[in-house]
Amino acid sequence: MTGSITPKDVIRILEEIGVLLELKGESPFKSLAYTNAARRLETLDEDLEELVRRGDLKSVKGIGDALNRKITELVTTGRLEYYETLRASVPPGHLEMLRIPGLGPRKIRTLHEKLDISTLGELEYACLENRLVELPGFGTRTQQKILTGIEHLKRYRERRLCSEALEAAEPLLAKLRGRAGVVAASLAGSLRRGNETVKDIDLVAASDDPEALSQWFASLPDAESVIARGSTKVSVFLKAGINADLRIVTPREYPFALHHFTGSKEHNVAMRGRAKQLGIKMNEYGLFRDEALLPCGSEEDVFAALGLAWVPPELRENTGEIEAAETGVMPALVQMKDIRGIFHIHTTASDGSSTLEAVVEAAKKMGLEYIGITDHSESAFYAGGLTPEDVRTQHRAIDALNRKDPAFRIFKGIEADILPDGRLDYDDATLASFDFVIAAVHSHFGMNEDEMTERIIRALANRRTTILAHPTGRLLLAREPYALDLERVIDAAAEHGKVIELNANPHRLDLDWRHCKYAKRQGVRIAVNPDAHHTDGLADMKYGLNIARKGWLEARDIVNCMGLEEMTAFLARSKQ
Ligand code: DGT
Ligand code: CA
Questions:
Q1: Domain 158-251 belongs to what topology?
Q2: Which of 187, 325, 425, 573 could make a disulfide contact with 309, Cβ separation 3.0–4.6 Å?
Q3: What is the pLDDT of residues 502-558, one digit of tens each?
Q4: How far is the CA of 570 from the centre of ligand 2 (A)?
Q5: Fold of 260-330
Q6: Cβ(484)–Cβ(446) under 8 Å?
Q7: Ligand 1 pocket: which of 247, 265, 274, 276 to mutate (most atoms within 8 A of CB)
Q8: Terminal CA-to-CA distance of the chain, rounded, Å?
């Protein structure tokens, strides 16, 4: 056959056309014609190419004019334009979704039409926000089944969310540290640097018996297969669906190796350059002056040997951390213990799956002084947005709880949709009834950069807005940010004295750390918010704090590090 098209390829392409047509919602008969033709060709007695050459394809039952032309084009040229155009018109994510048990073309179309879902990541996020529960033809069980299916597919992806990698890495590190003969062990690489997505899990361990440690690591029950094993490096593919690399070094080498394998590469290059200027050679085994090792017992010593203060791993991206370390004073990066309260929490009143009471209990257990409840506003009908009447009902419930325990405060908030023209959802009286308002874009993602920027700036100019939610709308590994001039948005937040959210949901982590420094420089304060849809979601704060640290933020830059009294005054002031 021409090109390298085999009869098997022709059959596969016809079948795929059938599926693509279904995904596009074409008539079932049209789709069936291709599927049936594929079946016929499978049981063909004659040679397909010969049949095409003789022009006898139409004698095969079920192959009419149109199919004849298409199969002939495919067999003689090795390509089919119709197929290529059709394929390009269907989001690749929809084809991927077909691999999820329980998801057929009809359901995928519903997801697209009702929830605008085009990628696996968007689908996963929608499941986690309980969007499929109320969708016709779906339900809680289907939603759970889909989540499990996505879990299986994700095992073969190139990068993973930091949350997923950490979940696999932390127990591994604990086992490593608990093992006899391991003098020290740590995470390294992008995971230790607190990056939002990672390629793999890097671990470094110091041991006097590398061979035994290497064998033990390779035979861990967590490992599905061993990719490579030597006495200084073991690579395994974990059952969790991600690679883990363990470097084994001597206790003497450990501080140098830990620094080297933490990276980033750019930070390492800059450090090596600095060492060179000081007449020192630097690599993963040590610092050397005239071939003599400069002994270091810790990472602090390694930095000190180069005249630097210790640099927290999150800052090691060569974006000014070495210059800062030269002064000897590093920023006091925010920590979990600095967090006094949490905003942006959904309840069963809209699309959350925990009740107001359950959320309050969970927050108290975390030792917090206050929370801010924010269900969706009325326009977010897909998420059970609150009518003004629902708002009043919720406010009465909050008032009652606040009266019961004056030591803990529930602030009344809302996640108000920013409408396409930049107005906020609800009339002004309803908006004024909240203690604070989080303004969020949830629709019309396709606007051009100017329109979207103006839309958000208008919402920031609104006196009712307190916080701008997830400023770029991105979903990591799933959806690009919408077109936006983020610096102009940050400037506008500064001008109007508004807070910008750093959404701690590991799928978002938006504001990106790369923009935190700019926001800080412009005087914009940040709210690290979990965007929790369940009490479990409150624990996502740790991912948000990793990113805040990576963005050089200190407790004073983050509004929810204020105590209750200060926060009460802050919110009262911001409403004026
Ligand atoms: P990832 O895995 O893509 O999420 O990012 P990293 O930073 O964990 O990269 P990885 O796993 O390839 O390497 C871990 C560290 O090892 C990296 O951050 C710095 C160090 N490293 C790796 N390759 C090089 C290199 O070619 N030059 C230098 N200076 N350091 C390297
Ligand atoms: Ca890595």
A1: Beta Polymerase; domain 2 (3.30.460)
A2: 325
A3: 999 999 999 999 999 999 999 999 999 999 999 999 999 999 999 999 999 999 999
A4: 41
A5: Beta Polymerase; domain 3 (3.30.210)
A6: no
A7: 265
A8: 77
313 lines ligand 1 (CB under 6 A): no
Pair 506, 476: CB distance under 8 Å: yes
CATH of domain 336-574: 3.20.20.140
Angle at the Cα of 225 (from 221 to 227), degrees rounded to 5? 130
pLDDT value at residue 6: 85
Residues 6+ apart with CB under 8 A from 238: 168, 172, 201, 222, 223, 224, 244
Examine the pLDDT at 159 and tell me if it is beyond 80.
Answer: yes
Tokens 């090596």, residue? 272
Neighbours of 533 (CB within 10 A): 22
Distance 78 CA to ligand 2 centre (A): 41
Query: How confident is the prediction for the chain on average, in pLDDT?
Result: 94
Q: Which residues surround ligand 2, an ion (CB under 5 A)?
A: 189-190, 200, 202
pLDDT tens per residue, range 293-346: 999 999 999 999 999 999 999 999 999 999 999 998 899 999 999 999 999 999
pTM across the whole model: 0.83
CB atoms within 10 A of CB 367: 9
Ligand 1 midpoint to CA 264 (Å): 6
* CA 191 to ligand 1: nearest atom: 8
Q: pLDDT tier at 439 (50, 70, 90 boundaries)?
A: very high
CATH topology of domain 92-156: DNA polymerase; domain 1 (1.10.150)
Closest C-alpha to ligand 1, atom 12 = 189
Please count the other Cβ atoms lying within 10 Å of the Cβ belonging to residue 391.
21
Considering the domain 7-88, what is its CATH architecture?
Answer: Orthogonal Bundle (1.10)
Q: How confident is the model at residue 152 (pLDDT cuts 50, 70, 90)?
A: confident
Quote the CA–CA distance of 25 and 13 in Å, as a whole number: 18
* C-alpha of residue 263 to centroid of ligand 1, in Å: 6
Asked if residue 190 has its Cβ within 6 Å of ligand 1, the reply is yes
Q: Which ligand has the nearest atom to the CA of 199?
A: 1
Q: What distance in angstroms lies between residue 167's CA and the mean position of ligand 2's atoms? A: 15
Dump pLDDT digits (tens) for 265-277: 999 999 999 999 9
Evaluate: CB of 465 within 6 angstroms of ligand 1.
no
Query: Do 260-330 and 7-88 fall under one CATH topology?
Result: no
Domain boundaries, the chain: 7-88, 92-156, 158-251, 260-330, 336-574
Asked whether 265 lines ligand 1 (CB < 6 A), one says yes
